[in-house]
């Protein structure tokens, strides 16, 4: 392979892999803001929705765990799907990940970071101009491009150290809120008791709980750059699912207990209720620290998204599914710099156009819908590809069908629930029209131009 087309191999350590995935989930923003979507439907029973999501994600993680025994690639999920289904569906899987991480997730995180800063400062009594979301999002986009451009090591090192501080500080604050709350222990939050409609409310809360976990598998896209990739990705998947499950279950319990499970119907009215709650208990230093960490959480999430989607595009370009110039890496930094820049531009264009035409909150909803639907289909394809691949390679076992099927059923429910419960509005119509067009156009492209897999040394055992 030419020096201008290769990634830097064997440099990403085990814990750097773990924090690539943890950062993609943006644990700070997810705990303090994203999970408010679960509370909107499950109310005080939101912790139960998060527990069920953790079990579902663990089932989905099994497919990645088993795939990584044989495949460790910069193509991540795209390569898994291509190995299982073949070149045409594989190409569509690659396009699907571009939709999720490139088209949806980048403008989504620009908007979420900007709005979290706006609403978080408002909770502290500092009101920014209504238009401040735009320069805040632009700053996140441009600053987050720097470290991934300069090499995989600078970005994952930064994620590792700041990510540890972020998780520790949020859990410390959560523990203080539990201690100060009127009723620190309430096991009923792990039952449907507080959910309107019982299990139906818990089920809809599950949709948004899954969103909080989204990105847990992004370490797979560093397969070409990881040390002992086949082993460390398998170990990393276990570590990430364990850490995220403990963190999210603890934080949603702390925040629901602190808010009051019977009062949770008002929780989702705040974009970032976690900051509001810290202020409510007089924990101003904690609220300020959390706001700083939430801002950094959006920044590291943006870097993690860029790392993953750029390598998806890089691998698809190597396989002739995208223009060859995207398969070129920086001569000094060995990063897919062209894909990094292209994805940033796409994200900024969508962030600007959607934000100014429909408003930042509607743009947030649209890109969130794109991402939620795309990631559900992507994981469904990965889960289905595993038994197909293991049969081809003669390591099939029935667990390859049974365990991922649990997650696939939950992902199908997410798609169904999104389709039948989302109120019809202009943002929803725009989002669904775009999704249908994307699926049809990229499906046609994938059928007419299937990928030509070009595996690198060590990519498949």
TrEMBL record:
Domain called Amino acid permease/ SLC12A: residue spans: 35-425
Membrane topology according to the record: Multi-pass membrane protein
Membrane keyword on record: yes
Keyword Kinase: no
Membrane spanning residue stretches: 21-43, 49-68, 89-111, 131-151, 158-181, 201-224, 236-261, 281-306, 340-358, 364-386, 398-418, 424-445
GO terms of biological process kind: transmembrane transport
Keywords: Membrane, Transmembrane, Transmembrane helix
Protein name as it appears in the record: Amino acid transporter
A Pfam family the protein falls into: AA_permease
Highest taxon above the source species: Archaea
Organism: Vulcanisaeta souniana JCM 11219
Stored InterPro entries: AA-permease/SLC12A_dom, APC_superfamily
Subcellular location: Membrane
A GO cellular component annotation in the UniProt record: membrane
PANTHER family listed in its UniProt record: AMINO ACID TRANSPORTER-RELATED, INNER MEMBRANE TRANSPORT PROTEIN YBAT
